[in-house]
Write a structure and sequence with these properties.
It contains three helices and two strands; from the N terminus they run H-E-H-E-H. By secondary structure, it is an alpha+beta fold. It has a domain of 58 residues. A two-stranded parallel sheet has the order 1-2. Helix 2 links the parallel strand 1 and strand 2. It is flat.
């Protein structure tokens, strides 16, 4: 079993924890999301980009349940961005 790692705190630590996922983050949200998730999802994507973490944001027409017709694009992204090695993700 590997030795426990010291954890940094704050936003820098969260960005460092997410960094191994660079290019492996795919975000979708409905333009008219009933739970008003579009603004925070767009802000999260911009924050990731500003931190140098590649991500793909797709704003779909419709509301919260509009993902079914987009599933093929999601699977294609996941297949293209999959890694042959496990990614350690610690927050």
């Amino acid at each position: 079993m590997p030795a426990p790692r010291a954890r940094a705190s704050g936003a820098g630590a969260r960005v460092a924890a997410i960094a191994p996922l660079n290019g492996h983050i795919y975000l979708t949200v409905g333009e008219s999301d009933e739970f008003d998730l579009r603004p925070p999802t767009v802000a999260f994507s911009k924050a990731l980009t500003a931190a140098g973490i590649g991500n793909e944001l797709v704003v779909l027409s419709g509301g919260h349940d509009g993902i079914a017709e987009h599933m093929a694009a999601i699977v294609k992204f996941l297949a293209a961005s999959s890694s042959p090695r496990p990614i350690e993700f610690v927050i």
